[in-house]
Design brief:
Length: 354
């Protein structure tokens, strides 16, 4: 079994794919939910999982958007493992207390609090910078908070470039152009978990990251929702949902007994409850007891339950488009002269070219 998903090395992913196409496949390999498995499906190296999905009534217990993300040409090719909210806004309760502020409910309040934090010698916003994907993550958090569920599809749809040049997108560009000035000079090369430490020790006020940071917060002895405050965006924005799947290479006719068992166990109520509570992630199915969830994970689960969620750009866009967008967002971030117009034209150009 190989685990080359989001946050793991490209070398591990390449190794898993090489084993599949080279005739020595693992029983399963972990990939990102969405377009990550497209080339494997096109190469006909994956086994469809329709029989397991039908036997366990996935259509009734899993969100349709999740099923759509693992379905190709009417067949299911991925076993959903977990969902992750990618746009949690974390805050140091101690840092906010020092400036007499609470969790912001708007971007204006966010920047007002940021000014107070800076005056107090605290970094207003901690940004991870060792990978392009973290700039993408911040961007889609801002995007969701401005667009909401109704207009998200206008950005990801076929007329996305035209939408980016419209007035509706303009606040996204303005926030993105302003945000780097609230970060410190150590962004470049800084890993997300090191950035998370800035919140834990009160060195920084705010941090945007996915639910995987919740597990890190708990492991450090802090209580999410207490010493580290959290919300979905600054305005209870739609949760931007990503996730992981098992891709199961074909090994003869249909799934092997081991593959079938893994698919059934992974998606069971019992395993989903225990696994997601431990990881700080969100269940892929209904019927899971979320009473053990901390305040941050509970907020994410509620957003999904309320229909206040959108599927991450990792799911909607090809790896090539994601790579180009992440790379250019990093270039803009480190350019102190980048303007809202620069963000508009850069993002629109990528949507046109890919």
């Amino acid at each position: 079994m190989d685990r080359p998903g989001r946050g793991r090395s490209d070398a591990a992913k390449t190794s898993a794919i090489s084993r599949m196409v080279g005739g020595n496949p693992p029983d399963a390999a972990q990939f990102n939910l969405g377009a990550d498995i497209d080339n494997l499906v096109d190469s006909a190296v994956l086994a469809p999982i329709d029989a397991v999905a039908e036997a366990n009534d996935w259509a009734s217990v899993m969100p349709q958007a999740v099923l759509d993300a693992v379905t190709r040409d009417g067949h299911i090719y991925g076993v959903p493992i977990q969902l992750q909210g990618t746009n949690f806004l974390f805050a140091s309760a101690d840092a906010l207390d020092k400036v007499g502020a609470g969790m912001p409910q708007t971007w204006d309040e966010f920047f007002e609090t940021g000014d107070k934090l800076r005056e107090a010698g605290i970094v207003p916003f901690a940004q991870a910078g060792d990978r392009d994907v973290w700039f993408m993550n911040t961007f889609q958090a801002v995007l969701a908070s401005v667009l909401g569920t109704e207009e998200w599809s206008k950005f990801t749809g076929p007329d996305g470039a035209e939408f980016v040049r419209s007035d509706a997108f303009r606040p996204v560009a303005e926030i993105m152009a302003k945000l780097p000035s609230y970060a410190d000079s150590g962004v470049s090369g800084r890993q997300w978990n090191i950035t998370n430490q800035m919140i834990l020790n009160g060195e920084a006020g705010f941090f945007i990251m996915g639910g995987w940071a919740i597990g890190e917060i708990g492991a450090a002895g802090f209580t999410p929702g207490k010493e580290v405050l959290c919300g979905v965006g600054p305005n209870q924005a739609p949760l931007v949902v990503a996730g992981d799947v098992w891709a199961m290479p074909a090994k003869g006719d249909g799934l092997t007994e081991a593959q079938t068992k893994l698919a059934e166990v992974t998606t069971s109520v019992e395993v989903q409850a225990e696994f997601t509570a431990t990881m700080g992630s969100l269940p892929v199915r209904s019927g899971v007891d979320t009473s053990k969830f901390n305040a941050c994970a509970a907020a994410g689960a509620k957003a999904i339950s309320d229909g206040n969620s959108v599927m991450a750009l990792f799911i909607n866009f090809s790896p090539e488009k994601l790579g180009a967008l992440g790379s250019e967002l990093k270039v803009l971030w480190v350019n102190p002269d980048a303007t809202a117009d620069d963000y508009v034209e850069t993002v629109a150009g990528i949507l046109e070219d890919y």
